[in-house]
Amino acid sequence: MRVIVTGSSGLIGSAAVRHWDALGDEVIGIDNDMRATFFGPDGSTRWNQSVLESETTNFRTVVLDIRDREGVLSLFEKETPDLIIHCAAQPSHDKAAAIPFLDFEVNANGTLNLLEAMRQHAPNAVFCHMSTNKVYGDAPNELPLKELETRWEYADESDYKGISESCRIDQTMHSLFGASKTAADVLAQEYGKYFGLKTGIFRGGCLTGASHSGVELHGFLSYLVHVAVAGKPYTIFGYKGKQVRDQIECSDVVKAFEAFSKNPRPGEVYNIGGGRENAASVLECIAKIKEISGHEIKWTLGDDNRKGDHICYISDLSKLRRDYPEWDIRVSLDDILRQMIASEEAKLS
Ligand SMILES: NC(=O)c1ccc[n+]([C@@H]2O[C@H](COP(=O)([O-])OP(=O)(O)OC[C@H]3O[C@@H](n4cnc5c(N)ncnc54)[C@H](O)[C@@H]3O)[C@@H](O)[C@H]2O)c1
């Protein structure tokens, strides 16, 4: 089988490369290190490209910009992939406001280039689109909440499992990033529903792992572990540090893609995150890092929350578990933190 992975040097893309390479498939990565353009040298994923190329057997990177329509079309014509894992993106909620054209061109137009290349040259392939919970904008904040000592929590028992795919996606504040990703999400659904192609849309909560090139504006847990180990200061943006995120390790995301690829449901949408078991507030993550590693974070609390930021977001995983019962969360939040701390300590030693 031939797999094309976009954003192959990034967090999710690189996990996908490792996974299909280990299965003996041919894997072609598309990545132009645009993360360094978005976030500066600390955000570069070039290091991960080199690691991947040394650790895999049947993988190569094509330095291609997904905005390059002709380049994408001709790659698909030449390679005819069986599976496309689409992870290349401008991934930051806050950054998008400073680079609106670039954000939209990468996230929306880039996705359209890939979907159309698939329709023209690989119509039997499966396409897994990495979307985001920001397509719901701040609608999840409308759920009644109660304030506990270290976190916000849903006040109604019926919301306990978290946000499902039935949450509305319009008439809410998304950020420009949320808007460009919503365009991509809906386009990917249409290539499934309208054209009957095998597209699956995965709306991520907090996706994480040791290979994330975390920066302040993207990669919350990775950046938090980095500042903890490096002894740098950390600013929490509003909500008293009690905002809740559900963390999923990248290999668990890739397992969901694999399950979908074996039994695709065209145009279907799934929420994917750590779910209730892997959910924690910023304050709770800071405490866990200290408990696990002894690293104490010098944090301060800023008054202002990020615009449209979720207060309590937990992905309801029921639909994914129902359609793909072989899939589940395998890596706990504590194990994620252990792996990330060890990797960060190794980088600094
Ligand atoms: N990490 C999270 O918490 C999270 C949460 C929800 C959704 N997502 C989504 O998951 C996907 C992957 O996220 P990630 O955390 O792995 O991001 P990442 O930034 O680690 O990786 C993305 C990769 O895409 C590459 N890239 C960016 N623009 C490109 C372009 N125009 N052409 C070619 N390559 C390009 C970057 O250089 C980078 O290596 C994104 O769509 C993101 O919106 C991520």
Topology summary:
Elements: E1 2-6, H1 11-22, E2 26-30, H2 34-39, H3 46-55, E3 59-62, H4 69-79, E4 83-86, H5 100-121, E5 126-132, E6 145-147, E7 152-154, H6 175-193, E8 198-204, E9 206-208, H7 220-230, E10 233-237, E11 244-249, H8 250-262, E12 268-272, E13 279-281, H9 282-293, E14 298-302, H10 318-323, H11 333-348
Parallel strand pairs: 1-2, 1-4, 2-3, 4-5, 5-8, 8-12, 9-11, 10-14
Antiparallel strand pairs: 6-7, 11-13
Helix pairs in contact: 1-8, 4-5, 5-6, 7-9, 7-11, 9-11
The structure holds nicotinamide-adenine-dinucleotide.
GO molecular function: CDP-abequose epimerase activity
EC number: 5.1.3.10
Keywords: Isomerase
